[in-house]
C-alpha cells in the first residue's frame, strides 16, 4: 500500500503540479557547509552560498480507480530533483585560508512517484 506521509492530497488536475528549483536566500546557507580539512582545521561557508537551489513544491496525490479490480488505489507523487549542477562555495578555514568547495544545486525538478526505486534497488522514502 502506498502512503504519502507528510504530504497533503492535492488537486487531481494536471496543472496542479508546482515543482521547481527554488533559490535559498544566501543568509540561510551561512555556515551550512562544514568540512574538516587536516592542518587547515574546520572550513566553513561563513558567507553563505550564492545561487544554491533545492527542489520544492507540491505534486498531485490522491486515489485512482483500478479498471481491472474496480477498486480505488492511492498514489503519491513527490517533488524530486532530476538534474543538478556543481556550484562553487568559498569556505573559510581555521587558519584563515579560503578554499573552494563544490556543492550540488538543483536545476531541474519534476513530480515523480514517492515510492520510486533507486538504482541500488532501495525504495526511496520522502518525509
Lay out the secondary structure.
Elements lengths: L17 E6 L10 E3 L5 E3 L8 E6 L2 E5 L6 E22 L4 E16 L14
Antiparallel strand pairs: 1-4, 2-3, 3-6, 5-6, 6-7
Indicate the structural class. mainly beta
Q: Got a strand count?
A: 7
Described by the principal axes of the CA atoms, the overall outline is elongated
- The total tally of domains equals 1
Task: Report the β-strand fraction as a percent range.
Answer: over 45%
Identify the CATH class: Mainly Beta
As for the CATH topology, it is Cystine Knot Cytokines, subunit B
Low-pLDDT sequence parts: 1-15, 119-127
Compute the CA-based radius of gyration. 20 Å
Please summarize the sheet with the most strands.
5 strands, antiparallel
Q: How many angstroms separate the termini?
A: 16 Å
Order of helices and strands: EEEEEEE
Task: Summarize this structure as a short list of keywords or feature phrases.
disordered C terminus; 127 residues; mainly beta; 5-stranded antiparallel beta sheet; 7 strands; elongated; disordered N terminus; two-stranded antiparallel ribbon; Cystine Knot Cytokines, subunit B
Question: What does this entry look like structurally?
Answer:
With 127 residues, the chain is mainly β. It has one domain (14-110): Cystine Knot Cytokines, subunit B. The protein is built from no helices and 7 strands. The chain has strands spanning 18-23, 34-36, 42-44, 53-58, 61-65, 72-93, 98-113.
What's this model, at a glance?
This protein is mainly β and 127 residues long. Helices cover 0% and strands 48% of the residues. The protein has no helices and 7 strands.
